[in-house]
């Protein structure tokens, strides 16, 4: 098992959500003097756990004197590196790391790290499902499910499938996956990266920073951003491509509706249309999961069984209802423009698109052609509607703005005719009108179902 040489005794955990509570539990189990601090209010679940574990904590404030007296800080990914407290810690030379970095120091499990601007959750869940279905002793963690650190403290897995965000990768030092998956890199979270796309790209490429020649990188070969970056970097791990456009001699590709994968002398073939997940983006996700499974020696029958029995997480092209011939689809997880590109590409029918929210520096030109060809009406749902309205004015037959989800769904019903798709695919964050993308998706589904009772 890899262990970084640590002399730290006093560990402070900043943030008391799932990852923070898990990091605190792991720190205590390893004999550290641990203290958790959250500037907000802790969820009752986590405060109860910390009390039961006899871990001191504070909420509603950060006591800087105590935090700055630490030897190591484990930071929630939601806290930017630019906040004064983090700057002060770094100026004092106190290491600030992420939960995935901390947890990885105390496990000898093989790590499969999946990142990308879009598709992380589906690919992570699908990969986990295939491996677990095949009988591997595997955990699910990272940006999804139970805390990675918490599981390392209390469970014993041979493998972990980890959904990894750029925010988590920003604060790694030695984190090293045996298999990394880089699905795509498109502009997202630019407000967190000084509105520099290259800064965001660099963050994503941290996933391979510590990989060795014995490790593996699975990547989307059709992404110019990724392949251009390859030309600038020395890529150490063995590389396996995924493509929707090219037949690859080594790697995975889609051709005539068939998924093909050829890795380490193992071959696999599957008719894509038979899978429960649809659309070109999900073909990419499926090929990534297949590639991981092949690298780990899962046999073709088990891979196929896992693919066919998979059920995706909600809010990802989730069909809600068909009402009077109109299909209502919840894609609330589409919080950037690239996600909407793939969502629109999944339908041949006319689309009434509901989009909007908190714009993160979006460039709508990448979906302009699809919108012109497929969208018969745009409903802008959000407090800031001007950018979307102005960009697509004259490019779609009709535009409607609202700040009420029921009103948006009602307008979709008014415009819709049998065969149409009413698609919630926002391209934006949700925090102007909703708690999060799940809340937005749940309220959309409730509004759709209200149509039935009207």
Give your account of this protein's structure:
- This is UDP-N-acetylmuramoylalanine--D-glutamate ligase.
- Cell wall formation. Catalyzes the addition of glutamate to the nucleotide precursor UDP-N-acetylmuramoyl-L-alanine (UMA).
- Residues 315-428 form the Mur ligase C-terminal domain.
- By secondary structure, the chain is of the alpha/beta class.
- The protein has three domains: 10-94, 3-Layer(aba) Sandwich (Rossmann fold); 101-308, Mur-like, catalytic domain (UDP-N-acetylmuramoyl-L-alanine:D-glutamate ligase); 318-453, Mur ligase, C-terminal domain (Protein-Tyrosine Phosphatase, Chain A, Alpha-Beta Complex), CATH 3.90.190.20.
- Helix content is 35%, strand content 22%.
- It has helices at 18-29, 44-52, 64-67, 84-91, 99-104, 120-133, 148-154, 166-169, 197-205, 224-232, 280-295, 300-308, 337-344, 365-374, 386-392, 405-415, 437-453; strands spanning 10-14, 33-38, 57-59, 72-75, 96-98, 110-115, 138-142, 159-163, 179-182, 216-220, 238-243, 251-255, 258-263, 266-271, 318-323, 326-330, 351-355, 375-381, 399-402, 421-424.
- The longest helix is centred in the C-terminal third of the chain and has 17 residues, at 437-453.
């Amino acid at each position: 098992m890899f262990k970084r040489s640590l002399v730290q005794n006093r560990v402070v955990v900043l943030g008391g959500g799932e990852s923070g509570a898990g990091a605190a539990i792991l720190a205590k189990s390893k004999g550290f003097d641990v203290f958790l601090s959250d500037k907000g209010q802790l969820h009752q679940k986590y405060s109860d756990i910390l009390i039961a574990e006899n871990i001191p904590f504070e909420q509603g404030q950060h006591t800087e004197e105590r935090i700055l007296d630490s030897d190591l800080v484990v930071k929630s990914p939601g806290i930017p590196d630019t906040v004064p407290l983090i700057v002060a810690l770094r100026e004092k030379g106190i290491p600030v790391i992420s939960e995935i970095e901390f947890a990885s120091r105390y496990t000898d499990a093989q790590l499969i790290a999946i990142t990308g601007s879009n598709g992380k959750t589906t690919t992570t869940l699908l990969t986990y499902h295939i491996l677990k279905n095949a009988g591997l002793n595997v955990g699910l963690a990272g940006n999804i499910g139970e805390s990675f650190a918490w599981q390392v403290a209390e469970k014993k897995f041979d493998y972990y499938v980890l959904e990894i965000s750029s925010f988590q990768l920003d604060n790694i030092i030695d984190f090293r996956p045996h298999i990394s998956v880089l699905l795509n890199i498109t502009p997202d979270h630019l407000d967190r990266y000084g509105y520099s796309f290259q800064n965001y790209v660099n963050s994503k490429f941290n996933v391979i920073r510590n990989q060795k020649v014995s490790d593996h990188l699975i990547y989307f070969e059709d992404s110019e951003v990724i392949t251009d970056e390859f030309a600038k970097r020395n890529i150490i791990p063995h590389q396996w491509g995924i493509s929707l456009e090219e037949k690859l001699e080594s790697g995975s590709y889609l051709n005539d509706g068939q998924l093909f994968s050829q890795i380490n002398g193992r071959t696999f073939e599957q008719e894509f249309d038979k899978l429960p997940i649809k659309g070109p983006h999900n073909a990419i996700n499926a090929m990534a999961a297949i590639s991981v499974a092949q690298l780990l020696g899962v046999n073709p029958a088990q891979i196929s069984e896992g693919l066919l029995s998979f059920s995706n997480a909600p809010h990802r092209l989730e069909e809600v209802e068909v009402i009077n011939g109109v299909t209502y689809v919840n894609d609330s997880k589409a919080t950037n423009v690239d996600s909407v590109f793939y969502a629109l590409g999944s339908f041949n029918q006319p689309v009434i698109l509901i989009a909007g929210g908190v714009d993160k520096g979006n460039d709508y030109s990448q979906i302009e052609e699809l919108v012109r060809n497929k969208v018969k009406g745009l409903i802008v749902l959000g407090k800031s509607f001007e950018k979307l309205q102005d960009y697509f004015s004259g490019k779609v037959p009709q535009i409607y703005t609202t700040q009420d989800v029921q009103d948006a769904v009602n307008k979709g019903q008014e415009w819709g005719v049998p065969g149409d798709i009413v698609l919630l695919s926002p391209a934006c964050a949700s925090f102007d009108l909703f708690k999060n993308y799940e809340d937005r998706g749940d309220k959309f589904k409730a509004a759709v179902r209200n149509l039935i009772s009207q």
